[in-house]
Amino acid sequence: MAAVTSAAPPAAGLRDALAVLLALDHPDRLQLLMAAEGLLPGCPAPCTLDDVARATGRSVRQVAETATRMHESGLVRVSGRVVHADTTVFARAAAAVEEAMPVTALLRRRPGLARWFRRGRLLRVPERNEQQAEVAALLVELLPAGVELSEDEVGAVLGTVGDPAELRRLLVDHRLVERHASRGYRRT
What we know:
Structural class: mainly alpha
Mean pLDDT: 90
Radius of gyration: 23 Å
Helix content: 40-55%
Largest sheet: 3 strands, antiparallel
Number of helices: 9
Strand content: 5-15%
């Protein structure tokens, strides 16, 4: 498939976002985060390592090792024996993912269209034809110019923003792409 025309994604921010998600990719770590937030039965906030161990049936050493792993991603810190959560890392991770979305760079050039998007995704296609045309003109920039794309390729690009079938129809209806039954799609 042809490359999407956009700036290179900010790799460091995506690495940090991935580290946060991977830090939660285990039931013990999820329990620890829930405990630090006061959401685990038997662990009122503030929660200690001992409280978490009792509530989960794990040893204090195992809980401390889990806390150390989660500290590396910024999700928790331990002061003395008290576990504290920092859930602001989720907002930073979401912002890093949004920054890497192809439509984000396009929206910087057309900030008036940002109201139709959230976190790099189209909330809904506007009802008014003029607004639809503006959104469609933005979205067609995600497709490379002068390149024939299959329906699957167009769908993969537009699927990063919203429902690919709906957005393909939007681009065709506004005559921003031509559909060739035997060959695929091309920007006009």
